[in-house]
Amino acid sequence: MRFHFSKHVQEELEARKIARALVDQLLQAPEQKVPEVEEITCFQSRVDIGGKQYLLRVMVNESVDPPVVVTSLSHQQDCQVLEEAMKVKYDQEVDVLTIQLSAAPVEESDEDKPGVILDYDKDGNIVGIEILNASKRMENPRALEYAVA
User: Fold this and answer.
1) Which of 75, 85, 66, 53 is closest to 27 using CA atoms?
2) What pLDDT was estimated at residue 80?
3) pLDDT value of residue 82
4) Where is 25: in which H helix or E strand?
5) How far is it, in rounded angstroms, from Cα 79 to Cα 99?
6) What are phi and psi of 15, to 5 degrees?
7) If 0-12 CB within 10 Å is exposed, 13-18 middle and 19+ buried, where does residue 137 land?
8) Residue 85: what pLDDT?
9) Integer Rg of the chain from CA
10) What is the pLDDT of residue 48?
11) How far apart are alpha carbons 9 and 105 in whole angstroms?
């Protein structure tokens, strides 16, 4: 099956240091396919990276043709994020809101609630948040109000 990789997922793969070849392999033969939120299905498999076992999870919108890869995460990954300021980005193509809280490297990513992915540093601090189907979870994901109190 052919999949479309959104710009968002390509950026997340690079930021999370996940090889595209691993994702391609997972999409063709996942160990599991788990329904997530609305049209999103999680394709997941155990993969070996550098002699260590990781759970690779890829979120796919299967309601469109070709299916769109929305985002990807792996548990216990070592990831270097280069930006230093907090950043908020909304990708309308895949309806994902990303909030990068810190430039600390991501040690682990976890889907705390269906469609909400939290990135943690080595000390367990949240350094990033990814919200799938953002337009269905908030009034306007394109609007941002920022205040320092």
Assistant:
1) 66
2) 32
3) 30
4) helix 20-28
5) 16
6) -65, -35
7) middle
8) 66
9) 15
10) 79
11) 18
pLDDT digit string, tens, across residues 59-115: 999 999 999 998 887 755 333 333 356 888 898 989 999 999 988 888 888 988 899
Structure tokens at 63: 């309601």
Using left for φ > 0, alpha for ψ between -120 and 50, and beta otherwise, residue 124 falls in left
What strands, in cross-sheet order, belong to the sheet with 126-132? 87-91, 96-100, 126-132, 116-120, 108-113
Two structure tokens written together for 60:
């796919």
Please name the amino acid found at residue 40. Answer: I
Q: Helix, strand or coil for residue 108?
A: strand
Is the pTM higher than 0.70? The answer reads no
Six-digit token string for 134: 């953002």
What is the identity of the amino acid at 30? P
Q: Structure tokens of 104?
A: 């600390």
